[in-house]
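Hey,

Quick one before I head out. I ran the complex with fe (ii) ion overnight. Inputs first:
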Amino acid sequence: MNYDLLVLKVKDYFTSNNVIKNRYYHSLGVVDAAIYINKLYDLKIDEDKLKTAAILHDIAKYVSFDDSINILKENDSFLSIEDCLKSPQVLHSFVGKYIAESKFNIDDEEILNAIYFHTTGHPNMTALEEVIFVADYIEDGRCGYVFDNVRKALESSIHYAAFLILKQTINYLNETNSFIFPLTIDTFNYYKKEYNYE
Ligand SMILES: [Fe+2]
Ligand SMILES: [Fe+2]
């Protein structure tokens, strides 16, 4: 599907009762942030793939918890459903892959994986996955010192920016006594070991 048409379809998907949800504007912000990072580090990621992954990354944000679990039970053999039941906030990224496939006819594995891993990351992400992971956190609509910390980190390294997102997320989840999805911890440990980040 042509990108402009895709944007219209996403807009429609994020509109109910003639009200466009904020998630649509956040998604456009992630597109801009992803393009910015791609240029900043001269990563040469195909811009069409980048924009498609970015505009669709949160497409499952409004799928109900029960529907999300059912979609994952039916389609996914990678995740532990037991962990998913304990971590409702990350489900939309995994479910997003299946919505992108079934409702938006996306069949490019790289794009689908960038959507799938955008909340947890995974060890040794591809450049596309890492850009979407970071762009989601630094797009212009995000306000607060945790986001500014990552914008600053991005000036030195995209890997350090990704590490800092994971570190801040894990700290927050610990402080609020929340379950931390195991893949988030695996990704954090990967960056710590691979790059010696503190
Ligand atoms: Fe998300
Ligand atoms: Fe997002």
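The chain has one domain: 3-195.

Talk tomorrow,
K.
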